[in-house]
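Sequence design from tokenized structure. All designs in this work follow the same two-part layout: the structure record, then the generated sequence. An example of the structure record is given first.
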């Protein structure tokens, strides 16, 4: 099932051509989610010429699959930030995200974007007694930064709540409608967008970058923005050593109940996040959560059912209309990486590691990146400094990187004993070993077999099968592939090797 947001714009969605000729611009942005689009939008105001390349369609990945809460409340986070970075940077983080809410509202008003933007309070709640002290501590931490958070012990939710921290005046919207509005606002400006254009390489010569697409067409640009969810360049930068990815699931249920007045997320595990949206006469309640590290070998079979159970606590007669899954990058210190990609690649910038709070973080990133390109100091940049980690010590991973330069698509044939194939249930997959080679085999509902080499094309980790989404997921840095081997989530940019399966 598609995400509700993507479905809601499917009729009026603007489409863009594939890059079919060599081009040049001041800035080349790689990635058409919120970071890329917002950066392009702000650059268009600065009269820069911009080319944005998206490997599939605008907002078809993380942006189009989020819960679209626009908030500076990123779970219980500010006490942690004060403890680890001190008050100054914690305040910077909070103020940057608060400013992002205002920036988004300003764009919506100025550009007349109809995207169901609504002001709502945001809450982190708990149903566990032992979480209460943490929530109270967070309230004090946030107040110490000058923000009017408060502790409340009652919520509108029809579930037993013991306490919550409230952030007033946050917001929610429809991210795909907002994205369409941004695209419209950039029409007739010096911004050109190309969809279905996968970037496979980046070279530099005489202070100009050459960005190379899969079909060999190139963009020449002085500045490059990596807005690709997960950076697609491994070296330098080494972001794959500093981030992991996490999957979460969302169900959208139709209910006759009124829209929620607030937006909610719990503090304990498993994560449960709630918001609602008006859909015609009815309300669509979105329940998200059940997060886990991508590729983790755990039983996922009940993930959606557990979210539906939460929805039924709120309305026993609700009807499931949507379910989808999303993936987010999380940095090891939980703070996004925004700014210079690496001191070895001047004029290349990135925004990543938003840890599921991409609506505001992408706006923060766009503003910092645009200020850098325009040579201005941004008041919030310090806390997000992307080159903040110490030199890499993980030589094992660095060795693995060499594997990435090998082969792209190689077709191999394997004869597999009938008995082994019979043991794979329909609509499930298994990794089997044949003559010392591992083969991942998926059997569809008509018993058609799809074979792949279950080795991630990023840095060579063995993939895990995700039976809920029918994807091959990488436990190392979170790349994901369809059952027929197509790369769908970064950092991998190459498809899996296909293995033809024959019965023996
Ligand atoms: Fe890095 Fe798979 S995503 S090895």
């Amino acid at each position: 099932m598609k995400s509700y947001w993507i479905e809601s714009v499917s009729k009026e969605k603007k489409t863009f051509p594939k890059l079919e000729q060599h081009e040049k611009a001041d800035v080349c942005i790689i990635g058409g989610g919120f970071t890329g689009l917002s950066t392009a939008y702000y650059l268009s105001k600065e009269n820069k010429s911009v080319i944005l390349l998206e490997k599939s369609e605008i907002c078809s990945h993380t942006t189009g699959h989020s819960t679209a809460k626009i908030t500076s409340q990123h779970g219980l986070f500010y006490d942690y930030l004060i403890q680890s970075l001190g008050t100054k940077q914690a305040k910077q983080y909070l103020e940057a995200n608060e400013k992002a809410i205002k920036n988004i509202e300003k764009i919506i008003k100025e550009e007349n974007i109809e995207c169901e933007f609504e002001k709502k309070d945001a809450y982190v709640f708990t149903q566990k007694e032992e979480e209460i002290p943490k929530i109270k501590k967070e309230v004090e931490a946030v107040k110490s930064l000058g923000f009017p958070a408060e502790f409340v012990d009652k919520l509108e939710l029809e579930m037993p709540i013991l306490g919550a921290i409230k952030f007033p005046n946050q917001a929610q919207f429809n991210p795909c409608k907002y994205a369409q509005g941004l695209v419209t606002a950039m029409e007739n400006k010096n911004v050109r967008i190309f969809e279905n254009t996968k970037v496979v390489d980046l070279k530099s010569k005489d202070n100009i970058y050459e960005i190379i697409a899969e079909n060999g067409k190139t963009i020449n640009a002085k500045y490059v923005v990596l807005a690709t969810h997960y950076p697609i360049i491994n070296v330098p930068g080494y972001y794959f050593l500093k981030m992991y990815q996490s999957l979460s699931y969302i169900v959208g249920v139709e209910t006759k109940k009124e829209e929620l007045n607030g937006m909610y997320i719990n503090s304990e595990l498993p994560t449960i996040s709630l918001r609602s949206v008006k859909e015609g006469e009815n309300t669509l309640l979105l329940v998200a959560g059940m997060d886990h590290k991508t590729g983790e070998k755990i039983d996922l079979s009940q993930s959606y059912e557990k979210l539906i159970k939460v929805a039924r606590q709120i309305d026993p007669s609700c009807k499931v209309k949507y379910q989808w899954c999303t993936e987010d990058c999380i940095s090891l210190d939980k703070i996004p990486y925004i700014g210079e990609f690496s001191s070895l690649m001047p004029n290349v910038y990135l925004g990543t590691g938003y840890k599921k709070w991409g609506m505001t973080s992408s706006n923060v990133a766009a503003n910092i990146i645009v200020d850098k390109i325009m040579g201005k100091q941004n008041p919030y940049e310090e806390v997000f400094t992307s080159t903040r980690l110490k030199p890499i010590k993980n030589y094992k991973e660095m060795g693995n990187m060499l594997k990435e330069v090998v082969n792209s698509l190689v077709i191999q044939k394997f004869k597999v004993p009938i008995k082994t194939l019979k043991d794979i249930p329909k609509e499930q997959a298994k990794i089997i070993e044949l003559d010392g080679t591992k083969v991942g085999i998926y059997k569809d509902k008509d018993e058609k077999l799809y074979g792949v080499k279950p080795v991630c094309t990023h840095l060579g980790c063995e993939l895990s099968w995700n039976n809920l989404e029918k994807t091959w997921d990488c436990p190392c840095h979170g790349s994901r592939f369809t059952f027929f081997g197509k790369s769908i989530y970064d950092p991998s940019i190459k498809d899996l090797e296909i293995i033809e399966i024959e019965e023996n």
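The chain has a mean pLDDT of 91. We note this feature because it recurs in several other targets discussed in the main text.
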